[in-house]
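Inverse folding, one chain.
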């Protein structure tokens, strides 16, 4: 039996935001149906803990040209999805803060409302979610202790869980976000969401080809090994 699908997501990535929006539109209880793994650029402390486990971070920073393209592409995709978007300006961001705060919120049973509060702040209002002030406001909005959210990075257990997430990403060969894995099938980017849904939920899009895989082999091959497709950051 295949294990549950895994979704690697990031509060940094606009394609991750759009992917989650698309998944929730098709599968409203998707937060309960997938295993969620935050993914971010680790700071020195997390990177050292990751290295101690013999793992590393596959992601390679994008070029300035690709960043400019993503600015335009994301605006276009957000409009098509009926979403308003304010592009945030990241100044020396510390991505540990929002992602570890989300892990703390999940422990408190507030993963979904805190996720929604963070993406509303970042993509709806263009706020810097790597600041304690924004994290605190998002926590209050989500019904989660703002002090616990702001100090999640000081919690040794949360730090260890964060390292677990990035180690899992290393083991799953995650090189960009968003990234979905189900069994042997891997899907990178917003433009592979429909392929994932066809494989995972055959009733949404009855597949042709291999009935066990749930998606034609040629499609799976393209999804697994495409290394520079619009719809993924990385």
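Residues assigned per position:
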């Amino acid at each position: 039996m295949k294990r549950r699908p895994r979704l690697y997501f990031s509060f940094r990535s606009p394609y991750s935001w759009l992917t989650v929006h698309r998944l929730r539109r098709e599968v409203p209880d998707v937060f309960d149906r997938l295993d969620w793994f935050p993914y971010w650029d680790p700071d020195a402390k997390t990177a050292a803990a990751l290295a101690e486990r013999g793992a590393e971070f596959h992601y390679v920073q994008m070029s300035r040209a690709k960043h400019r393209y993503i600015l335009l592409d994301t605006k276009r995709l957000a409009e098509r999805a009926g979403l308003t978007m304010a592009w945030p300006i990241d100044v020396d961001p510390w991505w540990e803060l929002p992602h570890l705060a989300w892990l703390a919120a999940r422990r408190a049973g507030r993963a979904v409302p805190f996720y929604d509060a963070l993406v509303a702040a970042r993509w709806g209002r263009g706020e810097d979610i790597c600041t304690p002030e924004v994290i605190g406001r998002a926590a209050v909005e989500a019904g989660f202790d703002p002090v616990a959210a702001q100090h999640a990075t000081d919690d040794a257990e949360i730090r260890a869980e964060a390292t677990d997430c990035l180690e899992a990403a290393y083991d799953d060969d995650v090189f960009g976000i968003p990234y979905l894995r189900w069994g042997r099938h891997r899907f990178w980017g917003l433009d592979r969401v429909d392929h994932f849904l066809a494989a995972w939920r055959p009733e949404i899009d009855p597949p042709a080809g291999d009935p066990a895989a749930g998606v034609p082999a040629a499609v799976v091959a393209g999804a697994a090994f495409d290394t520079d497709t619009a719809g993924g950051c990385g």
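The chain has eleven helices and four strands. Residues 228 and 234 are 8 Å apart (CA to CA).
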